[in-house]
Amino acid sequence: MWLGLNIKRIGIVIKRGSSQGYEIAQRLLSYGEEVLGLDMYIDEEALPDIKWGKVFKVGKDIVDLIIVVGGDGTFLRTLHRIGSMDVPIMAIKIGRRGFLLDVKPDEALERLKDVVEGKYNLHRYMRLEVSFNASDLSMPLALNDVVIVGWGYARTKIVSLSIYVDEECIYDIDGDGVIVATPLGSSAYALSAGGPIVDIDLDSIILVPLAPMQFNAKPVILSPNRIVKVKVSDYSHPVACIIDGQTMEVVKPGSDIVIKRSIRRAKVLRFHGVNTYARLKEV
What we know:
By secondary structure, the protein is an alpha/beta fold. It has two domains: 9-125 and 265-281, Probable inorganic polyphosphate/atp-NAD kinase, domain 1 (Rossmann fold, 3-Layer(aba) Sandwich); 128-261, Probable inorganic polyphosphate/atp-NAD kinase, domain 2 (Tumour Suppressor Smad4). It contains four helices and 18 strands. It has helices spanning 19-34, 72-82, 108-117, 189-192, and strands at residues 9-14, 39-43, 55-56, 65-70, 89-93, 121-125, 128-132, 145-150, 159-165, 168-175, 177-181, 205-210, 220-222, 228-232, 239-243, 247-251, 256-261, 266-270. The strands form three sheets. A seven-stranded mixed beta sheet has the order 3-2-1-4-5-18-6, sandwiched between helices. α1 (19-34) runs parallel beside α3 (108-117). The radius of gyration is 20 Å and the shape is elongated.
């Protein structure tokens, strides 16, 4: 489905230290302003590596679209920086991996022209939100996964967790931790830990225990309406709650980590067909 949004103000975020990224961004900035008549802005964090008069702050200044030039890490960090702002992302892939980064560097200008002409598909990907019973800590929404593992001196120790689904304990875990993933994240860390690949169009929450001592602690696919609670046992070592491998908070024993589907989805502009199972060739 071709879908046209009213896109006039575009901000560009670049992978830090990438000379290729800086070159692509410079071409996009000039082409967007001089040829397409757009208002093009550069992320303030890219200064002074790029000389451009218009600068924006991700998550604070309003733009209609953010173009990410980089890899998975840059893409995920940008999503986290956006926060609660409802801004779609177009991603230009630098490197080999990146399921969501489907624009190649040599087609960047052509895809920007497609944006102006409304020739793209807008995909809305499920995310997870995290809250804590013992604090007011705020964490970004998870596009891929929420990983709960030992932290600090406890990274080499067993952590003890109880996993609840809608207030019913489904199993206790003594092991390395647990992954709570989205369908998109099912092909990331969760897959390497023995979890299933789940079709990205099937809203669901995937639980994958990490090296559990209990035989019954197996991966589970849940309805997206379920609420998952991970209780860190009083006698456990401290754990880290890590969002998309980018943002981390240390959680004390006796705390509850509550995870559920967010009402705010990640909006991503795509220009090529999406095949869930083609990801098997990329991982």
